[in-house]
Amino acid sequence: MGMSTDMGIGSSSSNNNNNNNDDDGWIEHELIKPRSIEKRGYQISIASVARQKNTLVVLPTGLGKTTIALLLIADTLKHGGRALFLAPTRVLVHQHYNFLKEHILHDGIAVLTGNTPRHERMEVWSSASVVCSTPQVTLNDIERGFIDAGDFALLVFDEAHRAVGDYSYGRIASLLANASSSTGAGVRIIGFTATLPDDKEKVLEIASNLMIERIEVRDESSPDVRPYIKDTKIEFVTITLTPVMRRIREHVERALQSRLEELKRLGVISSTRVNMSNLIDARESISGIKGSTVPLYSAIRLSHALKVLDTQGITAFTRFYERLREKGGIGVRSLVEDRELRSAYELARGAELSGLEHPKLSRLVEILRREGFSPDEGYYSVSSSNSNSNNNSNYRRGKVLIFTSYRDSVEVITSRLIAEGFKVGYLIGKAGEYGLKQEEQVEAVNRFRAGEYSILVATSVGEEGLDIAECNLVIFYDNVPSAIRFVQRKGRTGRRMPGKVIVLVAKDTIDEAYHWISRKKVRQVRSIASIVNRIIANRTGNNKDYSSSNGKSSDISSSDDGASYGNNIYHSSTNLTNLDDFIK
After folding, report:
1. Rounded to whole angstroms, how far apart are CA atoms 43 and 218?
2. Which CATH superfamily groups domain 47-228+523-541?
3. CATH classification code of 243-353
4. Helices (H), 187-313
5. Per-domain residue ranges for the chain?
6. Which of 7, 46, 421, 510 measures 20 to 30 Å from 291, CA to CA?
7. CB half-sphere exposure, 467, CA atoms < 13 A
């Protein structure tokens, strides 16, 4: 069956909500636990659009994407339909399952992962009203015939930006849509992501793979979101490399330059001013160019070595070289024996043994102390002017989340902060024999939430979806050339209390280049949704205009002005005739 046109959502007043807006209160719905879900107008507006069209919801971390999913699932259950909620990892699947179990008054909610025995999966697929699962398990079970693909009225994709290439989200959407179409029932498809890719073609691919008819976007500047967030200050701290790091860098650059000149001579590249992406793309064009494979792969590895040195530091660089030496591969022996690269490694190894590291590390410690975080107790000062005070009344418990892209840096940062007396935990993914299993990741997050340690050092696994406690301070130890990752990192603070983001930038390095790239891409995303919405509307023949939530007509124009982002791109449902049916 398809989605209904009446969600049956109302509100009850509450004196506990300190947001002075017209949406104070709690969601009232016969299948939602009373006084458990705060009523927010933007969530209901998005849900009302998503109930009528296949919708891609773009909402930054911490603003309640899962709550919107819950509203749609409750609506589906109320009208006798079944819902399938997919997330890319077991940790996220269990997180969504627990959230739904906590707030929805219905016994038919189940969870499936690769650890669930086959006979149990078959039982769940045939009987549960709401299934939370991973895409891998779902696709495998569809192909095995365990699932009646036409039996779901609602299909929810978390982290929908993954729906590109051969990722299984697109295949699942197609199978369920075709099956439900053949029965005449129809399935409503909803995708959630913190932000869009900065590439219009990728956004179009996501929209095509998930059969999206509408993109709904909100950010911190959207008028209906602004009452629910607190100020987030962003500080950029520029750091200069030490003399020894500059010497190491010069050796690596000379090794890289010699490979680039060889590739230019062979006609693989037209200029030696290239980046990593250019080199990776060049792999497709070297077929038949004799002698090009070794210098190309060596150039890629040297570019990566330079990135590791610039963004992470000396220890990460030495470990990269040592792993390369042990691993082998195309041209590896000649590369590790290269005079310039060996000189770089020997300099770095000597510096490491002397206790030298990236200057970011010592600056990180300075920042934590400057911001008033107390190493021994995990407290921070209410105001920076009190940071040196011994008066405990000036302190309250606080949390810091430090993001870095590499596990080696997680180890270096964690060890240094522990040595300085801070209470620190870490969160990394699982790859092969190394890293944290998903159960251990959940334990690390829970200990951080419970206050067993005040600082959590995390790789990208901490960026995507995990329900990490809101933090007072988020620190970018490195920069990533990605709008998605920038928004995900930033969204870990400034939701229910004022927050701060500090971005460390190594001057005149790849780290600084990535910093500017990410900021540019975030601005570009603001116009891409508008452009793609127009393309989708033209393709589907649906050019209906919607009103923005402030009552002004939206022309769906593109804009790089952050202040007008919400007005120009998203379209709320305040002009829909049935809105009064579920907002009192």
Report:
1. 10
2. P-loop containing nucleotide triphosphate hydrolases (3.40.50.300)
3. 1.20.1320.20
4. 200-209, 243-266, 276-282, 293-311
5. 47-228+523-541, 232-240+358-507, 243-353
6. 510
7. 18
